[in-house]
Amino acid sequence: MASAPHSVAKHPIRRSLMSTISIIGAGGMATVIATRVAKAGHQVEVITRDTAKARALADKLAAGATVGTYAKAPAGEIVILAVPYSVLSSVIADFGDALAGKTVIDIANPVKPDLSGLATPHDSSGAQETAKLLPASAHVVKAFNTMFGHVLAKGGRLDAYYAGDDASAKAQVASFLESLDLRPLDVGGLPMAHTLEALGLMMIGLAKNGAGSWDIAMVAEIG
């Protein structure tokens, strides 16, 4: 597994205080993220339409994890949307104003089924389209989409690229990522999510072709 170098950042980010992190979804990536979040000492709130599935994941975490009520206001200030891009718009519609004021992490890679490109307008990104659907007071940050779930599950210190428009939300997410023993790297405003999503697609292509392995991670050599 490739891992990020332990270089010292010019402006070190303080680890976030332990807090409640709400995760909408209970699939493979949601499980991996929830497990890492729980191990970092945060309380995890799992939310899905299928309450039994949410309960199963919460019980598996065995770290005081709770089950939230679908379409109601999540308990966490940070809400991770860990559902496929194809159902993202319907999930956001279900929650409506319940996501007002939240920092929303979009992890989806909006790729076409045949992996020939991104399933988003050429001048936009999945994260930007998500932001259009959320309440104006919610702030979207793109993150986690450039890491394969099974690599993230191994627990190494990976580079975590993120993008967003709101400085406060980005600082909050950076601190959260650092608390997970990831190296947060800011790539710019939310339009840069398009580049991150293209990077996610490129990594899939690399795994299937040139690398010949899914045990890869994107590393930034700095300095």
Compute the separation of the termini in Å: 22 Å
**Helical/strand content category:** alpha/beta
Rounded to the nearest angstrom, the radius of gyration is 16 Å
Strand content bin = 15-25%
Strands of the biggest beta sheet: in what spatial order? 3-2-1-4-5-6-7-8
Globally, the shape reads: globular
As residue ranges, the low-confidence spans are 1-16
The helix/strand order is EHEHEEHEHEHEHEH
Share of helix, binned: 25-40%
- The counted number of beta strands is 8
The residue-averaged pLDDT reads 92
Largest sheet: number of strands, sense, barrel closure: 8 strands, mixed
Count of alpha/pi helices: 7
Entry keywords:
7 helices; alpha/beta; 8-stranded mixed β-sheet; 223 residues; single chain; disordered N terminus
What would a concise description of this structure say?
The chain is α/β, with parallel strands linked by helices and 223 residues long. The chain has helices spanning 28-39, 51-61, 85-95, 126-133, 149-153, 167-179, 193-208, and strands at 20-24, 43-47, 66-67, 78-81, 103-106, 139-142, 159-164, 183-186.
Write up what this structure looks like.
It contains 7 helices and 8 strands. With 223 residues, it is an alpha/beta fold. The model is unreliable at 1-16 (pLDDT under 50).
Topology:
Layout: E1 20-24, H1 28-39, E2 43-47, H2 51-61, E3 66-67, E4 78-81, H3 85-95, E5 103-106, H4 126-133, E6 139-142, H5 149-153, E7 159-164, H6 167-179, E8 183-186, H7 193-208
Parallel strand pairs: 1-2, 1-4, 2-3, 4-5, 5-6, 7-8
Antiparallel strand pairs: 6-7
